[in-house]
Amino acid sequence: MRRGVEAQPMDSVGSMDSVAGLRSRLREFAAARDWEQYHTPRNLAMALSGEAGELIAELQWLDDDRIKAALAEGPLRERLADEAADVLLYLVRLADVCGIDVIDAAYAKIERNETRFPPTV
């Protein structure tokens, strides 16, 4: 069990086990298409970077007020959801191929950041 983390859902969307399920589904998806040969850390990192760029492209020319208004309208939120999903899928697949538990790594990083950036009172 992770330090300071009880075994409970992360949020209303899913549980910590959903990352394992997603990882498994991505493995099956790649295997069914014989894509494992292409899923090298370098290739996956480049694809992840490209998808992050597509996410940024949805927002780059909008100021914060326009983004807030556009999110309320819906279509931008849908496009952001698609791009965020692409980023997440490549990140989970990259972590899997590299043997990294991305949730454990994220919690460890938060702990390091808490030390590096203590709250100011």
TrEMBL record:
**A Gene Ontology biological process annotation?**
nucleoside triphosphate catabolic process
Limits of the NTP pyrophosphohydrolase MazG-like domain: 40-118
Residue intervals passing through the bilayer: none
Cross-referenced InterPro entries:
DCTPP (IPR025984), MazG-like_dom (IPR004518)
Q: Name one GO molecular function term.
A: nucleoside triphosphate diphosphatase activity
Q: Which Pfam families match?
A: MazG
| Protein name (Swiss-Prot/TrEMBL) | Nucleotide pyrophosphohydrolase
Q: Which organism is it from?
A: Saccharopolyspora thermophila
